[in-house]
Amino acid sequence: MAAAALVTENFKFVSLFFKSKDVMIFNGLIALGTVAGQTAYSVFAFNCPCASGRNYVYGLAAIGVPALVLFLVGIMMNKSTWDLVFECRLRKCRKLSGASAFALLGTIIGRAVVAPLTWVVISLLKGKVYTCALSEFVNRSTLENFPSDQGSEVMAKLPCQASGPAELQGFWNEIERRLKYESQLIGWLLVAGMSLMVFLILCMKRCSSPLGYLQEDYWSQYRSNENNLFERTAAVHAQLLAAENVKRFFGFVALEKEEKEQLAEHQSASPICSTEWNRVTGVYLYREKNGLPLYSRLNKWATYSLENNVEAMEKEMDVLS
């Protein structure tokens, strides 16, 4: 029982990544966008230097640098990244166990690697970059009737057929076929390995989740609706508060018709203190109160606000799980 409880705790964060259909659709769109970007780069921008020593460096840069940039962008665009940063800055991560932190980092990295992995896989399946990078390392002794006095400098020029020796052009098709075979084999092995890993994580998630499938689906819908409503309401609240301050300064405020209707409907917007913002911001794990689920930090805050017990709220809002 203790082992089962430990596994359940460790994979609570992992379940957040895979339970949302919106997340999977979003990842699919990212992958498609990456495929389009890689294809455009391969057609319009990739230009093998065809020089010994430079081919390999250029090939690594053509695969590695865009993948690294996409990975960092994925990290920065993930809301969970900044929730974790906020948690460590404000609460010093004192309530975040090592296992939970590891699982949360896993979900952040899991979403961030979609684009870079797609870039790497597509590059390998096309084979153009791999062929450029490793052309000078082909074992010349395995090529029938290849001149023994030709070195790696000549091999490096073969991807640019116009710059290579004319008598060696007939060997290029065989060299290109070998390198593309290796490149595509590595690409498919990478696809198979990642697919197997995703499958195993999904299996572990299903086995370790404290919630049933229907409740997980409801939790996903709740979080999506809460985020959408929160962002829309925050935008209107900020606009109304700004309108009030501008009106105090100028004596009037220039509003569009729709904005005037919103102002008339809501009348005014009161500033929200930093303490309340901090209570609803940060890392969250699923929790229950008297058997009733608390689906988010905002849900937890609202539940304890009804009791009007500040001491209980302060203690509970500092708890992750």
From TrEMBL:
The chain crosses the membrane at residues 23-44, 56-77, 98-122, 185-204. GO terms for cellular component: plasma membrane. Pfam families: Ca_hom_mod (PF14798). Its main location: membrane. Keywords: Ion channel, Ion transport, Membrane, Transmembrane, Transmembrane helix, Transport. It is a multi-pass membrane protein. The keyword Nuclease does not apply. One of its GO terms (biological process) is ATP export. One of its GO terms (molecular function) is monoatomic cation channel activity. The keyword Metal-binding does not apply. It is found in: Membrane. Belongs to the CALHM family. This is Calcium homeostasis modulator family member 2, tandem duplicate 1.
